[in-house]
Specification:
homodimer; 572 residues; mainly alpha; Transcription Regulator spoIIAA; 2 domains; four-stranded mixed β-sheet; two-stranded antiparallel ribbon; S04_transporter_CS (chains A, B); Sodium-independent sulfate anion transporter isoform X2 (chains A, B); SLC26A/SulP_fam (chains A, B); secondary active sulfate transmembrane transporter activity (chains A, B); transmembrane helix (chains A, B)
């Protein structure tokens, strides 16, 4: 889900001290060149996160300062606990939208949600419950991301056009936005569209700058460097430029833009998260959050690498500084990597920049036009609206389109139903081959029936039906050799089913025997006292000479002696 | 789960007219010798079902006549729709206990439950939902059966000893029965114990009669036949004998036994099931049944062969004659088979005998001592209390003890929790290897990593971790060949995970390539544009010569040309 290869939470796999304290990996070797690279990368990420934080707070339905409150704790915690140098934690578009769904613009609920999400994530990390996330497949994640990015992108159209009082629910929003498109404010719309164009052009320029190398003349290198810096810090520069324009209009006595307005000044207080909200007690706050208490911690871990503990601690500590729930940010992680970050220490400089902005710049945020922030969000979520996934799924595995569409469509109703539907649909797709294994039938001297995968209990009735159909329902009934070369294990239900079936075969005067048994399966069948005449066959004997195959190597060494011994063992 | 091999409900597999109307299979060939055999078997089963029906009605908490009301519809329906000649439908001990749990001794609720269960079972048959039952494994069924047979058996101790007012809940019942054991009535206890002894002796005799053949003298054959008949009809004979004894005491003016008492006379009315109960409306009756509406239809199908449609229709029609929910009976199916039934027409005679008993014998049921009926039940459920299953599970697959004990223990709390817990535990056992496939690592020229089973999406993170661990975390990083010989299919999540990982390998200057690809997997990887240098290897190249194996035949023919073509295809 991210560029780096994920690390299991320590404690869930073989581990070392380094795994538990990842800072020990890089701190002892930390050097001055590293510091320089981390400083540049950290500040660049900082210039991205500050404008994004202001914008995302609006998506979350919270006052602008909450975006910044949420942006620094992750940097510090991840510096200590992070395993990948690139990852940056902080507010993201998706998480902001989820927060708006489940906390209804109430900062107290949002901060309590942060604390509880952190506790749940930490518990998942400590109890090794990360494997639960394994059951959320890519099609589900893609469907969710697509639906949510569409929702977020569309929610900004109203800010881009300067429309007021548009409802929050997606379908109502779409309806109202189009119905009232005539009320569009010229100033906001112009600034918004120009902002998007500027961001797109800068992004395009960045991806087309040739690699700088020492062979180039100095002036060319400087020129490229300027373009690269401008393009990388484009969010911050755009916001500053738009703020200056708005300020100029304000000074001249007219204001064509809707502005961010008054933002609380200074650093957030450090205090316990609000365990009650005025007269509203804790339990009723928890009830208000509802399914959000499942969705937000889960999605917080999903959106990025499964470092449940680091994420959990970030959220728990964040709730003490009025943060709303945060997670790893794709966009800023990419900026971090491209700027050449050396260690997780880069986060320290990002965090410091956010704190400085909070301490000294909040009065200036007054003048930032909302249309520009809308443009920042739209450009941030646009890459997530990756429609190529349709084509890829179609080409790679068409059945995976089912969980994809189930998730995508239901996410517009309620996010949790979308995810749940996707998980259920992909679960059914997963269990179907377990319940209905592929079976090959070779019609030779005897009938040879070969399941092409393992047999587990849900397949018992099916394999019995198939054997009945091909052998016992035939007239006259035929003997069957069950080729078990693909069976690694076997459970009691299957054994019991086969045992019944073998008796049925005997009643009809034919036999059901087993060939190519791997050792564990053979032992189980022996333990279950499969003692019918000629229950077991020497490997390879079953099929005819013309397509006789060596069995798989994993069963090879241990099986042959066991099968050769079988008559003696059976005679005990 | 029964002696016969199950048949899928028609419509869910390849079918013929015969499958839809099973009576067409045997009716055209029906003959007089068949009629004779069916008559004998049908009457024998009838002599078993009448006393059992009276006894099971007590287990269900209903008046005795309801047992008989439930005993004839199944015989007639199964004659028309049944696929196995042996199976008999009717009241069973387990179903009676479940009915008592969920209908609280209210006949109206029980009859409505019959109707609704029938509808649910029929819907399951028509919608091909029978596969849901596949997810209830044998350990769960065994745990359930063991717990329920213990509950039923113990519930009869109070009748055997003549104790009154013992509570219904299992633990309270055990406590109260032992606490009040001093109140035991001598007459009932004596009769009860003697009845059990009689039944056991007769059963033992039956299993020790030598096979009758024409070489024997006539008197010996007649003697054996008498013993066999007595033993087979032991329930009826015992009940008649006990009834006569009780009647004699009654005539002499003293009654040492608790009797069945007044039973409603005559045939049940044919009428709509009660969709409301006096002032209680339909929805509130349904709410009263609660989880029973899931457990009873499901268990009704589980206890015997999955002929959802026949069972559904039996229950729906049964509800018109005041039947409580019925299912296939193990015990009477065995009697049917042993008596040599020829076709499902045997059921006609069983049903007729039940109807005759209802019409003419109900006044006589007054005298049947309850202790004797308790003995009938105890002897019927005793074979279900099969404790050998512990040892078998221990020997065959120790992990299967987990769902077994989860079900067994929780069934004493609430049956539905027991089954649910068993299904969840066996589901986890089923999914664990899917999420954590076994992986073999061969350390040769390159590292060869071979998953020993398929890869599905829950395994993605795990396989990435493992590859990272063995190859990329090593210094220097090593190239890996992923041996895909056990992969039949692959989904988008796995492909995306491997794609990310291949990029990570390339960044570290090593390669991740694939060998022994089966055709479908190869196509998917091509579709997903796996275009890294040397992504694919010719089969067998991966592992060293010393343990090189032919790949499995299923991948053999189609794979080699595809792999040979791969450079051209990739170059498109």
């Amino acid at each position: 889900m991210s560029a780096g290869v994920p690390q299991r939470p320590p404690g869930c796999s073989s581990q070392t001290l380094q795994k538990s304290f990842p800072i020990l990996r890089w701190l002892p070797h930390y050097s001055l060149p590293c510091l320089k690279l981390d400083l540049i990368a950290g500040l660049t990420v900082g210039l991205t996160v500050v404008p994004q934080a202001l914008a995302y707070a609006d998506v979350a339905g919270l006052p602008a300062q909450y975006g910044l409150y949420s942006s620094f704790m992750g940097c510090f915690v991840y510096c200590l606990m992070g395993t990948s140098k690139d990852v940056t934690l902080g507010p993201t578009a998706i998480m902001s939208l989820l927060v708006s769904f489940y906390t209804f613009g109430d900062p107290a609920l949002a901060v309590l949600m942060t604390f509880l999400s952190g506790c749940i994530q930490l518990a998942m990390g400590l109890l090794c419950l990360g494997f639960l996330l394994d059951f959320i497949s890519y099609p589900v994640i893609k469907g969710f991301t697509l639906a949510v990015s569409l929702t977020i992108g569309f929610s900004q159209i109203k800010n881009l056009l300067g429309l007021h009082n548009i409802p929050q629910q997606f379908f109502l929003q779409v309806y109202d936005t189009f119905r009232r498109i005539g009320e569009t404010r010229a100033g906001d719309a112009t600034l918004g569209v120009l902002s998007i164009v500027a961001l797109l052009v800068l992004k395009l320029m960045k991806s087309h700058i040739p690699k700088i190398h020492r062979g180039m003349p100095l002036w060319l290198r400087l020129c490229y460097l300027t373009v690269w810096l401008t393009a990388t810090a484009r969010n911050a520069l755009l916001v500053i430029a738009a703020g200056l324009i708005a300020y100029s209009f304000q000074v001249m006595g007219s204001q064509p833009f809707i502005l961010t307005g008054k933002t609380a000044e200074g650093l957030p207080p450090f205090r316990l998260p609000p365990f009650s909200n005025g007269t509203v007690p804790f339990m009723s706050m928890v009830q208000d959050m509802g399914a959000g208490l499942g969705v937000i911690p889960f999605m917080g871990l999903l959106e990025s690498i499964a470092i449940a503990k680091a994420f959990g601690i970030t959220n728990i500590l964040g709730s003490f500084v009025s943060s709303y729930p945060v997670t790893g940010s794709f966009g800023r992680t990419a900026v971090n990597a491209q700027t050449g970050v050396c260690t997780p220490a880069g986060g320290l400089f990002t965090g410091a920049l956010v704190l400085l902005s909070l301490a000294y710049l909040t009065p200036l945020f007054f003048y930032i036009p909302k249309a520009t922030l809308a443009a920042v969000i739209i450009c941030a979520v646009a890459p997530m609206f990756d429609t190529k996934v349709f084509r890829t799924l179609w080409k790679v595995k068409k059945l995976d389109l089912l969980p994809f569409f189930a998730t995508f469509l239901l996410c517009f109703w309620e996010v949790q139903y979308g995810i749940l539907a996707g998980v259920i649909v992909s679960g059914i797709l997963l269990l179907y081959p377990v319940a209905r294994p592929q079976i090959k039938v070779y019609d030779q001297e005897n009938l040879v029936v070969q399941p092409l995968s393992g047999l587990s209990f849900p397949a018992t009735e099916y394999i019995r039906d198939r054997l009945y159909e091909v052998a016992l329902a035939a007239s006259p009934p035929r003997s069957v050799v069950l080729d078990c070369s693909h069976l690694n294990t076997i459970d009691y239900t299957v054994v019991a089913g086969l045992n019944d079936l073998q008796q049925e075969f005997q009643r009809k005067g034919v036999s059901l025997s087993f060939s190519d048994l791997q050792d564990p399966v053979f032992r189980v069948l022996l333990a279950a006292k499969f003692t019918g005449p000629g229950s077991f066959r020497i490997q390879g004997e079953a099929r005819g000479k013309e397509d006789q195959q060596e069995a798989d190597s994993s069963s090879h060494s241990s099986l042959l002696p066991a099968v050769n011994n079988s008559p003696e063992i059976l005679a005990e």
